[in-house]
Amino acid sequence: MSKEIVLRIQELYENWIKDDMTSLGSADIFANLLEYVKETQKDICGKCIPCRDGVPQIEKLLTKFEDGSVDKGQLLTLESYVQNLRSSKCSVGIDFGKTMEVVLRNNFNDFYKKVR
Amino acid sequence: MAKLILNGKSIKAQNGQTILQVARENGVEIPTLCFLKEMNEIGFCRVCVVEVEGEKDLVAACDTVIKKKMVVHTDSPRVLESRQATLALLAKKHRFNCWVCPRGDGSCEFYNLLKDYSVDSFQFDPAEGRHDFVVEGTGIYQDQTKCVLCKRCVSVCNNVATAKVFKFRDEDGNNPIVSPTPGLPFDEAGCIFCGQCTKVCPTGTLAEVDHIERVEEAIRDPKKFVMVQMAPAVRSAVGEPFGYPVGTPVKEVEGKMYEALRLLGFDEVTDTNYAADLTIMEEGTEFIGRVQNGGVLPLFTSCSPGWVRYIEQYRPEYLAHLSTAKSPHMMQGAVLKNFYAPKIKEIDPKDVYMVSIMPCTAKKYEISRPEMEQDGIRDVDAVLTTRELGRLIKKNNIDFVNLPDYKPENKFAQYTGAATIFGASGGVMEAAVRTVYEVLEGEPLGSLDLTMMRGVGSEDQIKEATLTLPKTGLDVNVAIVHGGKGIKRMFEILDEGKKQYHFIEFMGCPGGCVNGGGQPIVKDDVMDKFEVAALRASALYGSDAKDTEYRRSHLSESVQWTYENWFESAGSHIAHKYLHTNYSQKKFRKE
Ligand code: SF4
Ligand code: SF4
Ligand code: SF4
Ligand code: FES
Question: Is A74 on the interface with B (CB under 8 A)?
Fold first, then answer.
């Protein structure tokens, strides 16, 4: 178990270096993310399911986080849809997913705070 | 040759193969939704994702080519979770009403995936459906609340039917739709109603227009005398929904089929095979007439309404070639309603309700053609596909497998082997040649098995033969064309004008009616469509060779009786009134 955690921290660290989205501040985090989703949506081609149908669901969930009304199940669902973007057909979905993965890890507190 | 590791097992595979191919060859199951072999390999749905060691992202098995030393996991937790999430996303955009859905009989691939991956309903909202309307049509319809956007129908309509009716449309960014020209029903969008798309749709989005309800209503109505008939090809597959293997001999299921229809409450069971023999007399006579009187040649057969729609929409300049003979079940309806009912049963034709069981979705459209009536009496009132018949039998708790055989005694259920083979590509031509040869030459053909007319034929789905009539002094060039691909190619040949044909059989569906759009669905990873067609055709050819007393249409005693008593002779004035029709150009709009 501890080995797994170490590995995960390493991965997190690598991503931290690579990806500047990780420095998202807590203030307005959800508004910023929703902005980011909107930008991404312009590039979505609508062909594969994880991205075409996943991103709108992620958006829906982020709106709920912004409103401050989520439960734990919704947080898990959000994680699952973010993870699932790794199955997208092209880099639009995959890249969006990678960024969201890092945000979810590094700003996990901001997400968890909203869970009642 | 490449070596790779699949789920921990070392295996060898051909270079260039996809992960999906290798897995299937090695008995490892990977689920698919959008994939159709050699037809729709687009990698859209991502249900087939697998994990490849060393890659951070999951890859689609159906469009990822193997590499040496690849290590593939098809069932790791990550893979299973992804498939589940993907399916849940689809489910959020799906309106579930499986109990009234045409695919609620266990044949829905989407439903089966949701089951396999335990997608729980808490993972989706009260499902609304991707779009909330139905694209109507007289043969098929498309319920947009159930579409999973797999594009299979697009590929099949483009490549098999060649009608190019569907498009993947994505005008408003994130809300794509697969549909015919927006705002138009299928009737006005270039569709030929072959129904091939309804067989590959993994959901109940595309299906034949339901006629079960109106048939049940007619059966319940005490004032209606409800008659039924079934096409040659129906008996090649009617047992499949009840577990009989594809290609089950006709003898094993035909009697049960008649009995099931009787139990369903039809007042009289007849058989379209009777009118198939009648069709040969009418079409054969028309052919001989055109040869002897310098009429328009080649003559095109007209029994496939999908094909008729093709020529009416896409090649109207050739309409004069089309035989004016109605298709067999329309003839059967006209004879039963206008002659049998009033003259023998003493029933007013207005009280007769005619139901046809057909392997075909285009027949549903065909009965709605305005020409198909005389003196206000419609030829046929409802068409059930073979699939719908299966559903109706199950709904009525009829134990098909254990039914006794029944054989209707009336004249309109008697037929020759030449009629049975109508259901296979080449069968109409073979039946026509058996009769035309004998009429012109005054003696029967040496062998009645014209095997060169059977099977798929060339890669273009065309078969050709030359028939020498020594006494008549004529070499008759015939051709047999099946499926949109064959039709398209044949028109190229005809446009070139280099080859001279006398008689051409056209069928809208690849393999002929045995593979019609209304036949039971056999998934393409189980069996290729031409394999299915070949097995079902062999059931019909077997019946022709073994089960029937006569194998030439002109020997049908029922047909002879019909001419003696009602129609004088083939091609007579009165025969033309009831058994022939006309055609016209049909307009469509594609966008
Ligand atoms: S398409 Fe499948 S899942 Fe959808 S309602 Fe029909 S049977 Fe149910
Ligand atoms: S019925 Fe045939 S022509 Fe019509 S949309 Fe389906 S595949 Fe195309
Ligand atoms: S109509 Fe059926 S085959 Fe066509 S895209 Fe939708 S689900 Fe797929
Ligand atoms: S089956 Fe492979 S992506 Fe759809």
Answer: no
- B161-202 per-position pLDDT tens digit: 999 999 999 876 678 999 999 999 999 999 999 999 999 999
Structure-block tokens of residue B13? 């595979």
The DSSP element (H or E) to which B300 belongs, if any, is: strand B299-300
CA distance from start to end of chain A? 28
pTM > 0.90? yes
Are residue B483 and residue B571 in the same domain, yes or no? yes
CB contact under 8 Å between B90 and A53, yes or no, is yes
Phi/psi at B476 (nearest 5 deg)? -95, 120
In CATH terms, A3-18+26-113 corresponds, of 1.20.1440.230, 1.10.287.40, 2.30.22.10, 1.20.1250.20, to 1.20.1440.230
Cα B332 to Cα A47, B130, B299, B362, B421: the distances in Å are 47, 43, 22, 17, 17
Q: Is B48 in the pocket of ligand 4 (CB under 6 A)?
A: yes
Task: Domain of residue B202: give its range.
Answer: 93-209
What angle (nearest 5°) sits at the alpha carbon of residue A47, between those of residues A41 and A49?
A: 80
DSSP SS3 for B342 = helix
Domain final residue pick, B89, B113, B147 = B89
Does B153 contact ligand 3 (Cβ within 6 A)?
yes
DSSP for chain A, please give it. -HHHHHHHHHHHHHHHHH-GGGG--STTHHHHHHHHHHHHHTT--S-SHHHHTHHHHHHHHHHHHHHT-B-HHHHHHHHHHHHHGGG-SSHHHHHHHHHHHHHHHHTHHHHHHTB-
Q: In Å, what is the CA distance from B17 to each residue of B12, B266, B587?
A: 11, 53, 44
Domain end call among B72, B89, B106: B89
Exposed/middle/buried for residue A1 (C-beta within 10 Å: 0-12, 13-18, 19+): exposed
Whether the complex's predicted ipTM surpasses the cut of 0.85: no
DSSP letters of B435-501? HHHHHHHSS--S-S--GGGSS--STTSEEEEEEEETTTTEEEEEEEEEHHHHHHHHHHHHHHT-S--
Q: Cβ–Cβ contacts within 10 Å for residue A18, how many? A: 11
Determine the distance from the C-alpha atom of residue B292 to the mean position of all C-alpha atoms in its chain, rounded to a whole number. 35
Nearest CA in chain A to B174: A46
pLDDT in tens, B366-411: 999 999 999 999 999 999 999 999 999 999 999 999 999 999 999 9
CATH number at residue B117: 3.30.70.20
